[in-house]
Amino acid sequence: MLDVSCSPTPFLIGVLAPCLPQLLELPIEEVLIVDLCADKFVVQLGDEDCILPSKLQAALQQILEEREDILNQVDGDGSEGQQADLSSLVSEGFVRFFVELVGHYGLHMVESSNGSRELQRDSFRKSHPSRGVRQFLQLFMDTQMFAGFIQDKELAKGGARGLFEVRVAEYLDSCPEPEPSGVNKFLKGLGKLLQVK
């Protein structure tokens, strides 16, 4: 079973602590190994702190730290309601993270000549207001995770809306209209000037 960790496919697996020495002997590349009991990295690549945009990383970290506080407050009975709330908090944190990262994808989906939907990749990446997120998106858009996400959205014909789509709609409603820049700003200002006269 430990041989699965040598696979190039991205995944998350759990390994018992007694198996760690055997795991470390395997020819694994680009793998993070985290000791959840000790709350530390056993193996890391070194670029973990600079891949994610700092604001998104801080927000995600805050949610996970709040989870830790809530977990510490849970009484010894570990009631099911509290566990469900804790699970919802963590889930909501990751959903919000992805909403802020790629929630604007729908604004860049166009219908191609054959009737299928297609993401305009450059406009999608360049439209994010954060330079750090744009840089991250350049890397993230080459991953299997992003390719699968976009393929699902391109093939979707509407219908059911999950939690992600609901949060995307809320996020887009809360975003202010982007301020025009360059020529567009000039033309908008000129239009307002002409309306006044």
Automatic annotation (TrEMBL):
Residues 1-160 form the UDENN domain. One of its GO terms (molecular function) is guanyl-nucleotide exchange factor activity. Keywords: Guanine-nucleotide releasing factor. Pfam families: dDENN, DENN. This is UDENN domain-containing protein.
